[in-house]
């Protein structure tokens, strides 16, 4: 059986929550770190790289329980609700042309003033237990700012892991776009908050989506369609989205490092609660 874990975007709060969910499930006997493939988008690329490196989930969880003032993370003002509203307005302006919408977002990413690329790269490097690609099927999704097309970075792509993850996490307007091999890339969440369809081929796919289904985001809220596409191929799919307590812990500003500790705790509680249900899909041969 080939199993894949899909880890979606969701800022630093999403990193903490997803880590907590994974750790909570593992405490109840459902360890997802041995998946044959890991697809990471934005925040999910961080969690995916950490898992693929073989670091224990309890160690990763401990890293999310460090007070924000003791980390290198920077706070950025961000509202997912506002981002969704901007994307709805943008889609109206481009008459529903999603490719044009992504290219406009790419242009915005290039002209936005953020922190320096070096500073951002150092922050990403501090999140990763190793800067080399693991010998695993780790897929890191980013989007070309010029074309709006996505790219899947992996250990044979010829780019460093930290740069691939930095590109995948480059939220337009919040963090700098990342130049690699003559192209410039932005957040993989611009294509999809989860990119669950990129888990194919697999028999079983577990999606951990910190931002939920993204129904209010016409540019990148495609999880329901991705799940349907996988299921039409005979893939068993399980989706985990934040419960009410987790959403309250994460808040709408998922880029706020002060939300990491409460988000991690909420994730653990949710993971422990849902583990038995997830096991029916994940552990059943």
Q: What would you say this structure looks like, in words?
A:
The chain is α/β, with parallel strands linked by helices. It has one domain. 43% of the residues lie in helices and 14% in strands. It is built from 10 helices and 8 strands. Strands 1, 2, 3, 4, 5, 6, 7 and 8 form an 8-stranded mixed sheet that branches. The protein is globular and about 45 Å long. The mean pLDDT is 95.
In short:
It is built from ten helices and eight strands. With about 280 residues, it is α/β, with parallel strands linked by helices. This is NTE family protein.
- The ordered string of helix (H) and strand (E) elements is EHEHHHHHEEHEEEHEHH
The mean pLDDT is 95
Q: What is the distance, rounded to the nearest whole angstrom, between the alpha carbons of the first and last residues?
A: 7 Å
**How many strands in all?**
8
| Outline type | globular
Helical amount: 40-55%
Number of discrete helical segments: 10
User: What amount of the residues lies in strands?
Assistant: 5-15%
Output the radius of gyration.
Answer: 17 Å
Q: What is the domain tally?
A: 1
Question: Describe the biggest sheet?
Answer: 8 strands, mixed
- Uncertain segments are none
Q: Structural class from helices and strands?
A: alpha/beta
Motif (GXGXXG): 9-14
Keywords: Hydrolase, Lipid degradation, Lipid metabolism
Motif (DGA/G): 187-189
InterPro entries: Acyl_Trfase/lysoPLipase, NTE, PNPLA_dom
Sequence-ordered SSE layout with sheet pairings:
Elements: E1 3-7, H1 11-27, E2 37-41, H2 43-52, H3 57-64, H4 80-93, H5 98-111, H6 117-127, E3 137-144, E4 150-153, H7 161-168, E5 178-180, E6 183-187, E7 204-208, H8 223-232, E8 236-240, H9 244-250, H10 260-282
Parallel strand pairs: 1-2, 1-7, 2-3, 7-8
Antiparallel strand pairs: 3-4, 3-6, 5-6
